[in-house]
Amino acid sequence: MAALHFRNVTLGYDRHPAVHHLKGEVAPGALLAVIGPNGAGKSTLLRGIVGILKPLDGSIHLGGLDSRDIAYLPQSTEIDRSFPISVLDFVATGLWRGTGLFGGIGKVAREKILRAIASVGLNGFENRPIGTLSGGQMQRVLFARVLLQDARLIVLDEPFNAIDSKTTADLLALVKHWHVEGRTVLAALHDMEMVRTHFSETLVLARGPVAWGPTAEVLTPENLMVAMRMCEAFDDSAAACSADDARSRAA
Amino acid sequence: MIYDALIGPFTEFEFMRRALAAVIALSLAGAPIGVFLMLRRMSLVGDAMAHAILPGAAVGFLLSGLNLFAMTAGGLAAGFAVAILAGLVARSTGLKEDASLATFYLASLALGVTIVSIKGTNIDLLHVLFGNILAMDDQTLLVVAFNATVTLLVLAVIYRPLVIESVDPLFLRTVSRAGGPAHLAFLALVVINLVNGFQALGTLLAVGLMILPAGIARFWSRDLTVMICLAVVAAAVSGYAGLVLSFQTRVPSGPAIILVASALYIVSVLFGRVGGVVRQLFPGRHLEA
Ligand SMILES: Nc1ncnc2c1ncn2[C@@H]1O[C@H](COP(=O)(O)OP(=O)(O)OP(=O)(O)O)[C@@H](O)[C@H]1O
Ligand SMILES: [Mg+2]
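^ thats the input. predicted complex w/ magnesium ion below
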């Protein structure tokens, strides 16, 4: 059974599609990079997968996972960094699934939290308020939370933006470890070199699928050119999609 | 001498003891709510909501005169109606909550003042606007205590989702559906506590005993739990000192309480450990690492 199944899904805003008619499957345990120029619809697709954006058409099947089996790291978070909460407490929210409303954080859970914080290299930061962290340190904190979420499907939207090379290497190691553990990982990325060397499968997106398959076959200059060109025009007064029309007439 | 001034009024007069009990109940429940209002940048929402309660209370007043029980029921109904309507409008249209509240509460305030002035005298209007904590009867005191208890219980239940929703709403949305209900429950608590404060301080000042202590607490701690405890203490101290001040000087009790809280606030702004003015002007030498 596929971890993710796109059934002719169209995602967008205000009836304007941002990702058109995507079909295909992601196998369980896949390590999939989603690439494409700015505005290609990468974030839109990931939002659709985690369920915060409803498809305009078609559907996305999660292969038996419910929303709590998904860990999502958005491109721009809505985190209120001025809220008085420590790194430890913040990372602990990743255990939400286990603790629920009331469950206290016992000794075992505390150990787990501390280990997660240590494995993103933030020992000694446990009691710092999150407002006092640098951007890269905050990104590490977010990874620690994903770690605790222990999710089958992990969705990362440009996780290495504005992150130095040392931190990137550390976090990338985590991503590969998740892959080894058999979790399905999707990441929207801009660094082609990283995709080529670390991701086995790639989806080139440009407001619709351009190519999808093993990275070596898909990541070609031709595909990237096509993607680039397809993203240049955005027509605000577009008519209703004709692919839809054809189907509704047939129905 | 000092005993006469600070403790005497309470041993001597029943109504002062009741007022003190009321003010402590208000502090225990209202101050934590105020801390969340402040941290969620909803201080003015609280203020708006306080006005929204007025027409309901006024209808209660129309029906049964200056009966605090009827006014409470009316206030609760009106407050919930406005809170939920505004919340729904905000959630379904993407309008910011404060904007949609502003419309609702302005209409409510106008309606409320109109209703009171149709039947009542100016004294009644003053009472509704500024409250009278010294006129608490047993029944009202029970209502206040009951509301405070309910608040603390509900707050315990929604505490975790509320914290997560305040820090990272997107995260809560992806892992759980508790965010919406927790937010609505929180708004309900705001209303309950405003109605509570309304008995003692009136519509215009009720929110003061929630927001000012929260503002005081933020200058002394960066930790949420400590902040909440400090806010409760600050509220109770203001309440007590305000009552004493009012007793000794004939300043009306509600304003006296809020004035004391404001004085504490100013001291905190100046000398607070976290971001206080003096601390910023004379930070001391920088550390080694
Ligand atoms: N909230 C929104 N409302 C309306 N349109 C949106 C919204 N978010 C994105 N879009 C539009 O949808 C299209 C795809 O945006 P998306 O954010 O998915 O791109 P992306 O591939 O993630 O780009 P980037 O590399 O810049 O992050 C863009 O044309 C964008 O303008
Ligand atoms: Mg994006």
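Chain A is about 35% helix and 20% strand.
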